[in-house]
Design a protein that fits this description.
- This protein is of the alpha+beta class.
- The chain is built from 8 helices and 7 strands.
- The chain has 2 domains: about 140 residues, no CATH class; about 40 residues, no CATH class.
- The strands form 2 sheets. Strands 1-2-3-4-7 form a 5-stranded antiparallel sheet, with helices on one face.
- Strand 3 and strand 4 form a beta hairpin.
């Protein structure tokens, strides 16, 4: 994603599972490339993508858009986009300089097995490091769309339903998860709303100006991102 107003480009390499089907010679087809004059946003869920596009339209740069998309994915793509994980970010500036942020989860030093080996999430600290160093917009502005999607809910399309159906059994075995990701004990249907009030409350805590340093809040438990040259 690139915004010519700020000259910041953000590139992310994602590894996905690809199914390859053989076709008879002469019948192969490829998807036509898509070009954009002022910027492009791509994500795993269309609502999160639109959040990023809106940030660019409002004058934010590519890193602002990436951070807003990251928070939105925590709401609309619960299978992978979440606050309890981590990630990487590759950034290329307009002058050609590149940098790489590593904010993957870090296991406690004394971890062994079981719950003591759970990694400390890095998503929020990584996105906030990127925003503070390379972005232009305030944290509250970039979290606002995700907060609204969590609080008000969003209508599920077929892709969302298919994703949730893969974990129906797990949801049914865990009351806390069932209360959110099942509709009165049954799988959601296309067009129904997924509302996540507790996630909205967590996003409010992260949105607070002092969230990164305030003891006892949701955000401080996430370790500081570690920048490194690519």
């Amino acid at each position: 994603m690139q915004n010519p107003r700020t000259g910041v480009r953000w590139m992310v390499a994602a590894i996905t599972s690809i199914s390859i089907t053989a076709f008879a010679p002469g019948h192969a087809a490829s998807v036509a490339p898509v070009a954009a004059e002022n910027g492009m946003v791509v994500s795993a869920q269309h609502l999160a993508t639109m959040v990023g596009v809106d940030v660019l339209k409002r004058g934010g740069n590519a890193v602002d858009a990436a951070v807003a998309v990251g928070y939105a994915l925590a709401v609309v793509y619960p299978a992978a986009g979440n606050l309890g994980g981590g990630g990487f970010m590759t950034i290329q500036l307009a002058d050609g300089r590149k940098t790489f942020l590593d904010f993957r989860e870090t296991a406690p030093k004394g971890s062994t097995k079981g719950h003591l080996a759970v990694g400390v999430p890095g998503s929020v600290s990584g996105m906030e490091y990127a925003r503070e160093k390379y972005g232009t917009m305030k944290r509250a502005e970039l979290i606002a769309p995700a907060l609204q999607l969590a609080e008000d809910g969003f209508a599920l399309d077929q892709g969302d339903i298919d994703m949730l159906l893969t974990a129906t059994k797990d949801f049914q075995e865990d009351p806390a998860s069932a209360a959110i990701f099942l509709n009165n004990g049954k799988p959601f249907q296309v067009g129904e709303k997924l509302v996540q009030h507790e996630l909205a409350e967590t996003l409010r805590e992260i949105r607070a100006p002092t969230a990164s340093t305030r003891a006892g809040s949701a955000a401080p438990s996430w370790h500081r991102a570690r920048p490194a040259k690519a």
